[in-house]
Every structure is written in structure tokens, then in C-alpha cells.
Design goal:
1 helix, mainly alpha, transmembrane
């Protein structure tokens, strides 16, 4: 009887170990994907900020030109 019990315990231990290893592997893959998505979002955010800053700089340059024209005509 103890031989069957030890085989059962060994089998359950192997199944549990396999499950843990599978869970850790799947979790690592999921974490890597999430981290990669974060990098992509950061890059997109930086591009949007760069475009916004360029737009603001152009507006400021236009306002500066208008102000200089107004000052010359005054």
C-alpha cells in the first residue's frame, strides 16, 4: 500500500511542479509583452509631444513676426 501512496505523491508532485513551471513561463511572457507595449506607448507619447512642441514653436515664431511688424509700423 505504501508503494501506491508514494507513487501517487510522486505523481502529484510532478504535476504540481509542471503546473508551476508552466505558470511562471506564461507569466514571464505576459510581463515581457506588457513591458514592450509600455515602451511603444512611451515612444508614441514622445512623438506626440515633439509634434506639439514644434507646433507651439511655429506659433510663437509667427506671433514674434507679427509683433515685430507692428512695432515697425508704430
Amino acid at each position: 500500500m505504501s508503494s501506491q501512496t508514494s507513487k501517487l505523491v510522486l505523481g502529484l508532485t510532478c504535476v504540481a511542479t509542471g503546473g508551476i513551471i508552466t505558470y511562471v513561463h506564461v507569466k514571464q511572457q505576459s510581463d515581457r509583452e506588457k513591458m514592450h507595449e509600455g515602451v511603444i506607448r512611451d515612444t508614441e507619447r514622445q512623438q506626440r509631444r515633439k509634434i506639439e512642441n514644434l507646433y507651439l514653436l511655429q506659433q510663437q515664431n509667427e506671433l514674434t513676426k507679427q509683433l515685430k511688424k507692428e512695432l515697425k509700423t508704430s
